């Protein structure tokens, strides 16, 4: 009776319920395609998003867990507001101020479950009637995220100073997504003139905003990074986005964004009823990691490590002679190489794979056709590779591309 | 020169760059409203979403962290596919099969950063041209999530069997969001007849789907829960959603959903380039928590604990005599009480607050006007409260509502 199979009628008894016959419509369910699995005989993967796993501060992390996870702090079991732990936001205010010149208060910071999650939140704040201007080539997940959310996408070319402003001029309602520190994937760093030009562009209409993805500003090897757009902005035009994916580990799904006060108002209206989407314990751990100074020490260590690897990588690549040109700034944990060849990009990728090496063609990052000057350009990440592996990878590539 | 302030012209020298003047447009930045802070002199908070913090398996969790977090397993630092860790998905397949009759394969499971995050993914899969039918009253965050994503919302009344089917009949393209185990917030359990009726409704048109949020099926005290809609469905019409928020802790931002194969195809198309949005380490910890049988032991323990608290709560409430009626099933970690009074709901909430008690009025969960029979109905959560606190809370309520 509890489950509804029979009915009890007072003073009469129990009756069988009148239940519909369940119709099995015998749909042939179309199978979802399986995501491609790792290629088994891959020897070297020049993945641009991997980090050095051996250099992870395991011991520090274990201690942080121990000190953050305890019976007497019930806050580790509770939700927080949608914006995330106040403590972590407080640490970010001072850390981002000293490292990136960012000016903000705790209440402007929103902790997100990774860059894509933060971009989705930005999309909800701006509304999908706002077209999104993207650098082309572009950080692909940003492109796909805004596309999913239903925005009109405006692919904008990049010159040697970063995104071009001219093609944007007609749009009075637009959000421009840029990676000024180290354009992904071309590696261009936006000079001060273009930064001001871009900010002035935004200042000229109420509906113009800039989304500044400062994704790997931590890893710059030759000189101090330029101040962020957010630090120059005086008019609440820049939404600043950062992540711990490359600076700590890609498995820690945590990003942060800084909202101008005007957009914070919209955010609060949309999200005041929600909770944070990021593990509270990991927020606490990272708060402490920053507060203790361990994050800065870790970054300094990793910067040195990646710088050495990068130099070693470029030295190894010299066996290619004039056949290869290294493109972009001295930053991040991947190189961009331009290969002189008469074969197609696809052929070169296949040749590499046949020799057990995976490289990442730049065409994957273009919206539409590849501009001819970037044909046969490849991203080669070295974050996860040891010097020996870099050597092996370069030898295999030389075998694949030159010796054949 | 690196930063773009000066230019070098070969054989001529250095020139100052032509940089725009930065325009400060002196916008008065409107302040975002601050989220309401906790009321300081609150003695008892009958929050419906809190859990018993003292009963959390701290020791087990510490051991799980130790065994999952180690230098030799680099996978704890890497991203996984958007669907989440294969190991956790594997454990969920068998756990959900035995506990909820759910039939699925690993590849149909998607791990999400909480129920709202999963619902957002579902929204992207279905597209926001699909209207969403919601139970009214409704789980508010679900309502807000679908509203944010731009769906047309169809609020559907609930009778004593759950959501009514009749008002849905004209819609051939609709996703019906339901909580059949224990309707939130009314506590109605959907009997088998209505379940079949709802499934048959979905079977009659290609564009009809059911989103089954099985949110606290774990905590049912009188009898075994009815099988999930997903377990009866033979036609790939049900998207099943669950969460660890109440069963483990709200701070663990982790949910899961099971996609019918047809929708899995769409999901893969949309998300194959993305990574999981949930901490990989916590996914590993929960995988092991389930695999070791600790999750089931924890659930059994919590079920007993909440059942006792609930019985105690109802006993204490008897001092109200006929003034109070307890509504809904014997499930979950909150009660629904209907209070006979001539005052308004708002007045009763204020009276409670003045006496240091927070209760949650059902009007907050209605889309539009409250149906008259639910006036002066309140949610009283007891998850986080000890028996003494429940006693104190009831006494304070009695003082606020009866003695005055």
From TrEMBL, chains A, B:
Methyltransferase found in the keyword field: no
Domain of life assignment: Bacteria
Pfam annotation, one family: Aminotran_1_2
Domain (Aminotransferase class I/classII large) ranges: 75-364
Molecular-function annotations in GO: pyridoxal phosphate binding; transaminase activity
UniProt keyword list: Aminotransferase, Transferase
InterPro entries named among the record's database cross-references: Aminotransferase_I/II_large (IPR004839), HTH_trans_reg/aminotransferase (IPR051446), PyrdxlP-dep_Trfase (IPR015424), PyrdxlP-dep_Trfase_major (IPR015421)
Protein name per the record: GntR family transcriptional regulator / MocR family aminotransferase
Organism: Desulfosporosinus hippei DSM 8344
């Amino acid at each position: 009776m509890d489950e509804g199979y029979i009915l009890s009628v007072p003073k009469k008894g129990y009756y069988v319920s009148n239940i519909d016959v369940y119709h099995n419509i015998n749909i042939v369910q179309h199978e979802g395609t399986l995501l491609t699995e790792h290629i088994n005989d891959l020897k070297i993967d020049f993945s641009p998003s991997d980090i050095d796993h051996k250099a992870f501060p395991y011991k520090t992390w274990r201690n942080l867990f121990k000190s953050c996870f305890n019976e007497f702090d019930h806050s580790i079991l509770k939700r927080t507001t949608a914006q995330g732990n106040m403590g972590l936001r407080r640490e970010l205010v001072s850390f981002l101020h000293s490292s990136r010149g960012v000016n903000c208060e705790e209440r402007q910071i929103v902790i997100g479950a990774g860059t894509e999650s933060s971009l989705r939140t930005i999309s909800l704040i701006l509304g999908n009637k706002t077209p999104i201007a993207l650098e082309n080539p572009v950080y692909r997940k940003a492109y796909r995220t805004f596309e999913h959310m239903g925005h009109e996408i405006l692919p904008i070319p990049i010159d040697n100073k970063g995104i071009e402003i001219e093609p944007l001029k007609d749009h009075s309602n637009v959000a421009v997504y840029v990676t000024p520190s180290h354009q992904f994937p071309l590696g261009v760093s936006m000079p001060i003139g273009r930064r001001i030009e871009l900010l002035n562009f935004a200042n000229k209409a109420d509906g113009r905003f800039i989304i500044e993805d400062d994704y790997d500003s931590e890893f710059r090897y030759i000189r101090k990074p330029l101040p962020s757009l957010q630090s120059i902005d005086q008019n609440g035009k820049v939404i600043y986005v950062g992540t711990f994916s490359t600076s700590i580990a890609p498995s820690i799904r945590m990003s942060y964004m800084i909202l101008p006060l005007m957009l914070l108002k919209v955010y609060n209206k949309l999200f005041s009823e929600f909770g944070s989407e990021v593990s509270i314990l990991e927020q606490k751990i990272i708060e402490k990691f920053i507060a203790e100074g361990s994050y800065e020490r870790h970054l300094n260590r990793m910067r040195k490590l990646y710088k050495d690897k990068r130099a070693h990588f470029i030295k190894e690549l010299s066996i290619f002679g004039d056949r290869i040109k290294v493109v972009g700034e001295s930053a991040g944990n991947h190189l961009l190489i331009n290969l002189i060849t008469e074969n197609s990009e696809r052929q070169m990728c296949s040749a590499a794979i046949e020799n057990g090496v995976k490289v990442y063609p730049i065409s994957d990052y273009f919206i539409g056709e590849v501009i001819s000057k970037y044909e046969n350009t490849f991203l080669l990440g070295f974050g996860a590779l040891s010097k020996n592996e870099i050597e092996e990878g370069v030898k295999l590539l030389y075998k694949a591309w030159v010796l054949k």
